[in-house]
């Protein structure tokens, strides 16, 4: 499902290029559920942005579902993402002026008669326990409910790959547990591959496969580098 080879990404900070990711080789098989943990600033969100094609790698290859992303134009990557990848971003990103139902409907890329669309959204809302909340605005929903809307919005087109960035980030532990369970349950029932970035070790431990980004990324953060090299300046180094 996902293949990464010789991937490098750096950002310009304070007038110089700082390496963030250097991943020689990494893959995720179809249907796997994988959690990635790692220190703040270690490049986890950047990695998801690269896999989704929102960001471009400086060099190397990323293939999703057999499609090398570097072969696509920006418009091609957008179309590929819409068809292939569901992305649950940090902090939900629901549109505040639209109801829960409208937020989901907006993401539906395929043409279907309104009746079928309505039935499909109804069934998704019911699956996540929000059947009586479809007409509510995000501000009228709890944070856990908003996250569930964000998850079904990402899944309504049945993408083969679901990416989620800190899906339990600002939730209390009980709600977070429910979201983790929902993500894993949906992955089994829908058959998609699931890749989650999280600081929540409780959530990560529920995943069949859990890795620290530093298991695959050769770039080490400043704090780790300073401990091992005695540097006092705040800079990232490639070990
Ligand atoms: N567009 C950008 N321009 C410059 N630097 C960036 C940009 N995006 C991210 N960075 C830097 O890249 C590093 C990795 O950021 P990233 O958000 O991927 O980390 P993270 O592991 O997801 O962190 P956290 O766990 O805190 O969310 C950080 O030092 C960040 O400041």
UniProtKB/TrEMBL annotation:
Keywords: ATP-binding, Nucleotide-binding, Transport. Coiled coil: none annotated. InterPro entries: AAA+_ATPase, ABC_transporter-like_ATP-bd, ABC_transpr_LolD-like, MacB-like_ATP-bd, P-loop_NTPase. One of its GO terms (cellular component) is plasma membrane. GO terms for molecular function: ATP binding; ATP hydrolysis activity; transmembrane transporter activity. This is ABC transporter ATP-binding protein. It holds the Pfam family ABC_tran. Residues 2-239 form the ABC transporter domain.
């Amino acid at each position: 499902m996902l293949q990464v080879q010789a991937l490098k990404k750096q950002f310009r900070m304070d007038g110089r290029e700082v390496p963030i990711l250097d991943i020689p080789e990494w893959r995720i098989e179809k249907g796997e559920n994988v959690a990635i943990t790692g220190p703040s600033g270690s490049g986890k969100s950047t990695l998801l942005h690269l896999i989704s094609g929102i960001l471009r790698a400086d060099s190397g290859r990323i293939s999703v579902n057999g499609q090398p992303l570097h072969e696509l134009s920006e418009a091609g990557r957008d179309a590929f993402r819409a068809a292939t990848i569901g992305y649950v971003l940090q902090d939900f990103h629901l549109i505040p002026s639209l109801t829960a139902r409208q937020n989901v409907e907006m993401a539906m890329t395929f043409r279907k008669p309104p009746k079928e669309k309505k039935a499909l959204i109804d069934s998704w809302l019911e699956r996540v326990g929000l059947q009586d909340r479809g007409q509510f605005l995000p501000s009228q929903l709890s944070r856990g409910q908003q996250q569930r809307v964000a998850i079904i919005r990402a899944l309504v087109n049945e993408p083969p790959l679901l990416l989620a960035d800190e899906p339990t980030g600002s939730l209390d532990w009980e709600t977070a547990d429910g979201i983790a369970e929902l993500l894993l349950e949906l992955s089994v029932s829908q058959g998609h591959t699931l890749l989650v970035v999280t600081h929540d070790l409780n959530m990560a431990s529920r995943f069949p496969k859990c890795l620290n980004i530093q298991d695959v990324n050769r770039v080490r953060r400043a704090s780790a580098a300073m401990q091992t090299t005695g540097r006092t300046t705040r800079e990232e180094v490639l070990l």
